[in-house]
Amino acid sequence: MPPTGHDALRSRVQELLEKNLVMIFSKSYCPFCKRVKELFTSLGREYFAVELDQSEDGSGIQEILFEMTGQKTVPNVFVNKTHVGGFDKTQQAQQDGTLQKLLGMEAVTYDFDLIVIGGGSGGLACSKEAASLGKKVMVLDYVVPTPLGTSWGLGGTCVNVGCIPKKLMHQAALLGQSLKDSRKFGWEYDEQVQHNWETMRQNIQDYIGSLNWGYRVALRDKSVRYENAYAEFVEPHKIKATNKKGKESFFTAERFVLATGERPRYLDIPGDKELCITSDDLFSLDYCPGKTLVVGASYVALECAGFLAGIGLDVTVMVRSIFLRGFDQEMAEKAGAYMETHGVKFIKKFVPTLVEQLEAGTPGRIRVVAKSTETDAVIEGEYNTVLVAVGRDSCTKNIGLEKIGVKLNQRNGKIPVNDEEQTNVPYVYAIGDILEGKLELTPVAIQAGRLLARRLYGDSNLKCDYINVPTTVFTPMEYGCCGYPEEKAIEVFGEDTLEVYHTLFWPLEWTVPSRDNNQCFAKIICNRLDNDRVIGFHILGPNAGEITQGFAAAMKCGLTKEKLDETIGIHPTCAEVFTTMEVTKSSGGDITQKGC
Ligand code: FAD
Ligand code: NAP
């Protein structure tokens, strides 16, 4: 008599296991089932899957599987008739090599435990940490020169063409302001004070050179192999590295971390790549840029415009829509307004359509034609330098990811990862600016890289926390923030749930030179339904970065308005305003500061 019911199903399951080297019992909507299938694809192995939710006998089969394996959940994976388990166990088996053995694959030996592609903030942190944990690690870093031929050393964006030179040039601008203030404090010097671009640039570049050297030494000290070569995948677990001279070498690794960062985007209008510069060129420019048009209105654009104006240049910013998209707009508007009162010109709601050279030189003369985003108006202007700062593109499209099946967001080139920075291909991880939906900041890349190495090779399971990351925009009036912008807080929690406290303030240091009274601004957004927890912190004032850092730590600890009120301020400082905030936005009360 043929088997019926339960026995028939059991025979069917046995038959499936006999017939298929890799058998996956799955459910069509289950994300872990999808990932386990991708794992086998990345190993180049076919699988057979039964989608239990779409099969008539699905629940019966699940019962049988439970009897056979003690596992109720999906995916339920068998290889060569051996039960492997769910996603975690399958991944574990892949990592310790037992899966490859079951699949009959030859024992693979790799050149490295880990290859990190990109020696910037994230890549260096990750590779050094992995090496400290005893792993054999290689890091490759290669800078493709800008269209104008600018290139730089090891360390990535932050140290060479980002945070470090930016903050130092911001400091140059602040010193200019301090010089002006100093006369009121009794300093006497000749009327003639001028700024020398070449001196500033050279000293900053020398400092960067010392950092580049320090990174190389640190890699050597940790026994991380460093290759100054461009890396791209040629097949699973294998990359090709091409050095400056075009020499190709091939390396394999058990795991890879992608940390390739981003590069400035261009406008895609006639003449832009030949005639305009980006932040990648600015900091090492060997001549003073002169009268400058900055295109863009986010971090990079406003910060660069701010310090260029601060060292005495004629600066105009062309803004397509709003300042600092994604930031609290009240704060962004105030940061912009301060720049305007300090000499930066703004052309709002215009975009360039053409740039052409009027005269070659260092700097030369460039004509820019722009059109309105709202009307038919067309304007033109003449500048010595045009700095394009309209966003950055991820360096993910020319590294052979398609050859190993790593998924990209095709629209923006960003890489989606799970909460452990793992891509859809289990042996490939990604960190830093190229991650989809994460913040593009140096400390974020470093933290993610370091924690990833500890999870992979140490006994840690700590994940990178991307919530409440503080940041500061180093515009002439610095803007620091942590948590929600007001608009976003209203969208998420509803206006009635929130209480916003705010105040203008006047730093004591600015009183004697009598400048900029009531232009600094502080604001906190509290959730009334959650014990008046501070969910948004915003400050516009000197040293905003230094101030925001400490309050961000307090927010991690669950800072509430009550705790702020209980905190005794440090007098006379700017940060003390957060301990004495009384006026709510909803009250419409006066927020100008009258005295200390
Ligand atoms: P990166 O530091 O960009 O490093 C990636 C490296 O990989 C680069 O060296 C690149 O050349 C290399 N690479 C790319 N492809 C390959 C390949 N195929 N093979 C080999 N090597 C490759 N953040 C802050 O926190 N504070 C700031 O004040 C700040 N200011 C900034 C100012 C500017 C002007 C800019 C542009 C950025 C600023 N940032 C700031 C952002 C910060 O620089 C980045 O978030 C950070 O550098 C990202 O680190 P990363 O490791 O992801 O990439
Ligand atoms: P971004 O945040 O992507 O902003 C791009 C800017 O360019 C926006 O103002 C945008 O205007 C404008 N724009 C885009 N296309 C344009 C076009 N065709 N014509 C005119 N304007 C155009 O880019 P970013 O400023 O380069 O910054 C990149 C990242 O680096 C940031 O997200 C940040 O995390 C990081 N960063 C951090 C710091 C810091 O920590 N202090 C400093 C610098 C950079 P719209 O608003 O109209 O789109």
Written description of the protein model:
This protein has 596 residues and is of the alpha/beta class. The protein folds into 4 domains: 5-102, Glutaredoxin, CATH 3.40.30; 112-264 and 393-457, FAD/NAD(P)-binding domain; 272-390, FAD/NAD(P)-binding domain, CATH 3.50.50.60; 478-579, Enolase-like, domain 1 (2-Layer Sandwich). Strands 5, 6, 7, 8, 9, 10 and 20 form a 7-stranded mixed sheet that branches. The protein has a 5-stranded antiparallel sheet with strand order 21-22-25-24-23, sandwiched between helices. A 4-stranded mixed sheet has the order 2-1-3-4, sandwiched between helices. A hairpin with a 2-residue loop joins strand 8 (229-235) and strand 9. Helix 1 packs across helix 3, helix 6 (121-132) packs parallel to helix 15 and helix 8 crosses helix 9 (197-221). The protein binds flavin-adenine dinucleotide and NADP nicotinamide-adenine-dinucleotide phosphate (NAP). The site of flavin-adenine dinucleotide has 33 residues, from helix 6, helix 7, helix 8, strand 8 and helix 15.
